[in-house]
Design a protein that fits this description.
The complex is a heterodimer of chains A (about 550) and B (about 375). By secondary structure, chain A is of the alpha+beta class. Chain A is about 50% helix and about 15% strand. In chain A, the strands form three sheets. In chain A, strands 4, 5, 6, 7, 8, 11 and 12 form a seven-stranded antiparallel sheet that branches. In chain A, strands 2-3-1-14 form a four-stranded antiparallel sheet. Chain B is an alpha+beta fold. The chains are: A alpha+beta (about 550), B alpha+beta (about 375). The interface between A and B is large, with 104 and 98 residues. Strand 14 of chain A pairs antiparallel with strand 5 of chain B, so a sheet runs across the interface.
Chain lengths: ~550, ~375
């Protein structure tokens, strides 16, 4: 039968091509994953190796403004620079979502919670302002209304106005600088307005004029011991030409004014260094500063000074960040969770394979091999994507992969049941493996498309651990389709060509007698003409010769 | 040659047939009762929302040498109040408090470390701002709505709008049952639970798509014949796919069971366990609904379509005339499916109850 011969070789080379394509893909993924000079193991998420994760929500520095993607990107870069600046490797800084709904997730191993929050959460909006007056920290007016509004607030209260108005003075009078929240800062000020705020240590209350130097004028910041050996650690600032000129002019003007003291006479000759809305220090000008350099003294420890210098040298964030969620996972718990995830995965895999072997026998073996191929591809992909786009495997991701074992196996079941259907309709094994595939293909593409759709929507719209899960689910779905097309189908077709499978032993899982196919008890009435009984019964041997 | 046909084969040929579609009232009542209980549970008992949704701090002390009482005293010494202290897993103590400031977090951590004789870095801390949880929930709901719209569009294109609607009904069925069980048992709802529920959406649809694909295949050309009604063809499709549905569900549930075993045994409460429990309930409900709810509901929708109505009328007419000729009393609508198999004498047992379609490999050969 020459035409059949040609069509058979056609199918065979087609099957062969698929297997070759699969081998090529697996090798390519392997090379991508193990490319020299990169990590050769999956990047593990914080919950699997321990560390601290902070989720921050950006807010516009000035109320009413919108947050742009560019600002978010800039924020991420600055935070990353700050974290790198303290010498932490493998920090993850990602922005999830966009606009007002965006969240910034920072995950870092081996940094204390306190230090990390300080490091990344700080806007670092710096300005230098001439001091108008210095007062005692206690509220001089008992303004209960103002006090109430401050109840439950998480960031400091500051008073701002475009001039030294009576309202401004009244509000400032009501400000309580003994409240620790008001000493903590975190409310960036508008440099163009007057500012009433507290000292960092709560010792005094300041009324400050609009800024003459801003943080953007700082070109470099470094920590060091104060010259003269007293006062401990200081942060030295270097300004650009504009900042230096402003500093020199202001210092000359202020130097000419009389001294000031808390509650004392004003105007006075001091200026205040304001960081995130709170006065860090208010030195007097002992002499006009002409060199374009200044120092911040604030009773810093060595680490505080270094961290502040680090933060200031990378500039202020374009947004304010509020800490929404802080999670610290101990390394012990991390490794426990990883182990539990791996055990669950292996156990799940074994259960699925045992079930498939019991029910589908030889076909189950093809399914088990397919799961193996899918596993190898997935492992390579996780490593490669960890290197390429910083994909990290979290506990939720591990769960997603374990769940995907079952869903991947479902794909094979759809195919196998289709093969059985075809055999029940009288097809030979060889015909069934092809015809069954054509029908199963449609179903599994539709079903996998729905899963992929869900994964993509979840990934785009959600935050935090949900994203890790969605990514893992989407990845496994794609791998599932590739394996089904390039491995499971060709493997089953090749299986179906073996003599042993053709004989239809019960071990094959495709025994036509049990399935009610061509070799079933003779039907009482003649079969449909298009499927001659003789032809289909004798088909197997006939084609083999 | 004497091998008995397997159950799968008998279901396939229609020799053994369960009337999934015809007995829809039974399934509807069953599901209706379960749904009512679920909705009532959510309404009355409410959901036990985790700290991620309510805001607050959770401290986890692993393998400690201290008791629940020690941990409670240590926490109260720092922040006062009534922290919720529980023991999960083997030696893991979990302390849940109100939202705390950064300083309070640190103070509690070191107090716990001291009380339990461990390094304070081994204490796991999770602290969530009070508004953050609402935001996560909002995003999850947003994702849900977008996903549902896309799925309805896709299914309407791939199948038809009636199938999309039936799939959606089945999906809500599964999700409500899952949420209801969470309300009934008081299991904590965490972001991992939300992930689980969202996965159920995908899986429930996956299952339904597989069954509907067979229904679509079986009912192709249904309007051009008068041998069987749409409901009968759909019922045969469910019977033919029931083995597959059971197998896919068992296989999908096995890894989830593995997670539950390992999660409960090794870790105590945690992401893995939260996720797996939601998945287990939802997937089981998903299998049930794709067979007992989605297809019967679809058949019901289709029987209202004029072309399909006409087919049913023709089938009924043909059967009653056949019954007259044979002198039988068949033709009762309630036994339509059995009648369908018995009266189609033109077809051999083992043949498909649908227009012929030869396997692709045989085409163009005869």
């Amino acid at each position: 039968m020459p035409p059949k011969q040609s069509s058979r070789t056609g199918v065979r080379s087609y099957v062969g091509r698929q297997l070759i394509a699969l081998v090529a893909i697996v090798i390519a993924l392997g090379v991508w994953a193990f490319f020299p000079g990169q990590n050769t193991s999956p990047r593990l998420g914080l919950d699997l190796r321990g560390g601290t994760q902070v989720i921050l929500k950006p807010q516009p520095v000035q109320e009413g403004q919108a947050i742009t993607d560019q600002q978010l990107q800039q924020t991420v870069e600055i935070i990353r620079a700050r974290v790198d600046g303290i010498g932490v490797a493998e920090a993850e800084v990602t922005v999830q979502g966009s606009g007002d709904g965006a969240a910034i997730v920072v995950a870092v191993p081996d940094v204390s919670q306190e230090r990390l929050v300080e490091l990344v959460g700080r806007t670092a909006l710096l300005d230098f302002r001439p001091v108008w007056s210095i007062d005692l920290p206690t509220p001089t007016v008992d303004d209960t209304a103002a006090a109430d509004t401050n109840d439950g607030a998480t960031s400091a209260r500051i008073v701002q106005a475009d001039d030294n108005t009576p309202e401004y003075q009244a509000e400032l009078a009501a400000l309580n600088c003994l409240d620790p929240i008001n000493q903590g800062g975190g409310t960036p000020d508008d440099p163009d307005l007057w500012l009433g705020t507290c000292a960092q240590d709560g010792a005094a209350k300041y009324s400050l004029q609009p800024a003459f130097i801003r943080g953007t004028n700082v070109t470099d910041a470094s920590a060091g011991i104060a010259q003269g050996g007293v006062g401990g650690w200081v942060v030295s600032l270097t300004f650009d030409s504009e900042g230096a000129a402003a500093l020199s002019q202001a210092s000359q003007e202020l130097y000419a004014l009389p001294d000031c003291a808390p509650g004392g006479a004003s105007p006075c000759n001091a200026f205040a260094i304001v960081l995130d809305g709170v006065v860090v220090s208010s030195p007097r000008f002992n002499e006009p500063i002409l060199g374009g350099q200044a120092q911040i003294e604030g009773n810093f420890t060595a680490q505080e000074a270094q961290d502040l210098a680090n933060i200031l040298s990378y500039g202020a964030l374009p947004v304010t960040l509020s800490v929404e969620e802080v999670t610290t996972i101990s390394p012990t718990l991390g490794s426990d969770q990883l182990r539990a995830g791996l055990i669950a995965g292996v156990l799940g895999l074994i259960l699925v394979i045992v079930y498939l072997l019991l029910y589908y026998r030889a076909l189950g073996l093809a399914a088990a091999l397919s799961l193996g191929v899918a596993g190898v591809m997935l492992y390579f992909l996780i490593i490669a994507l960890g290197n390429a786009i910083g994909f990290t495997l979290t506990l939720a991701g591990v769960a997603g992969i374990i769940v995907a074992i079952g869903i991947t196996a479902d794909t094979f079941i759809i195919y196998f049941e289709r093969i059985r259907d075809e055999i029940r309709e009288g097809a030979s094994l060889r015909q069934a493996t092809d015809a069954g595939w054509v029908r199963a293909r449609r179903t599994l593409l539709a079903a996998d498309f729905v899963t992929l759709l869900g994964a993509i929507v979840l990934y785009v719209l959600s935050v935090g651990s949900v994203r890790g899960f969605a990514f893992a689910l989407g990845l496994t779905t794609i791998v599932d389709v590739v394996v089904a097309f390039l491995f499971t189908h060709p493997a089953v077709v090749l299986f179906g060509r073996t003599k042993w499978m053709q004989k239809g032993s019960w071990l094959t899982g495709l025994d036509p007698r049990r399935l009610g196919g061509a070799a079933a008890p003779p039907p009482e009435e003649p079969k449909d003409k298009s499927v001659p009984v003789g032809a289909s019964a004798g088909n197997d041997e006939g084609e083999e010769s | 040659m004497s091998a008995k046909l397997s159950l799968g084969a008998r279901l396939y040929t229609g020799e053994t047939s369960v009337d999934f579609v015809g007995r829809r009232r039974t399934w509807y009542i069953m599901s209706g009762i379960i749904l009512l209980i679920a909705i009532a549970a959510v309404g009355i008992r409410g959901l036990n929302l985790g700290v991620e949704f309510t805001g607050g701090a959770v401290f986890t002390v692993p393998q400690s040498s201290c008791s629940v009482e020690d941990a409670r005293t240590a926490t109260q010494s720092v922040i006062g109040g009534e922290p919720i202290v529980t023991q999960t897993g083997q030696d893991i103590i979990r302390i849940q408090t109100e939202p705390l400031s950064q300083e309070q977090n640190l103070a509690v951590t070191s107090a716990l470390g001291e009380a339990c004789g461990i390094n304070s870095t081994d204490v796991t801390v999770q602290s969530v701002g009070p508004t953050w949880g609402a935001e996560i929930t909002g995003k999850a709901l947003q994702a849900l709505v977008v996903f549902l719209i896309l799925v309805v569009v896709f299914l309407s294109i791939y199948f038809e709008w009636r199938m999309a609607l039936a799939a959606l009904v089945a999906l809500f069925h599964d999700v409500i049952i899952t949420v209801g069980i969470y309300a009934l048992t008081g299991l904590e709802v965490t972001p991992a639970t939300v992930i689980g529920v969202l996965t159920i959406l995908g899986y429930s649809l996956y299952d339904t798509v597989v069954v509907f694909d067979k229904v679509k295949e079986n009912t192709r050309g249904i309007t051009g014949q008068s041998v069987q009604t749409y409901s009968e063809a759909a019922n045969l499709a469910v019977n033919q796919t029931v083995v597959r549905s059971i197998n896919t569900s068992v296989v999908a549930l096995l890894p989830v069971v593995a997670i539950i075993i390992v999660g409960a045994g090794l870790l105590g409460a945690g992401t893995l366990l939260d996720l797996a429990v939601a998945l287990f309930i939802g997937m089981a409900a998903g299998t049930y609904s794709s067979i007992f709810i989605a297809t019967p509901f679809l058949a019901q929708l289709k029987e209202h379509q004029p072309e399909i109505k006409a087919v049913s009328a023709r089938v009924a007419a043909r059967r009653s005339s056949a019954a007259k000729r044979g002198g039988g009393t068949e033709g009762d609508e309630t036994t339509a499916v059995k009648a369908g198999v018995a009266s189609t004498t033109a077809l051999a047992p083992g043949e498909r109850q649908q227009p012929k379609r030869r396997p692709r490999s045989k085409r163009g050969r005869g």
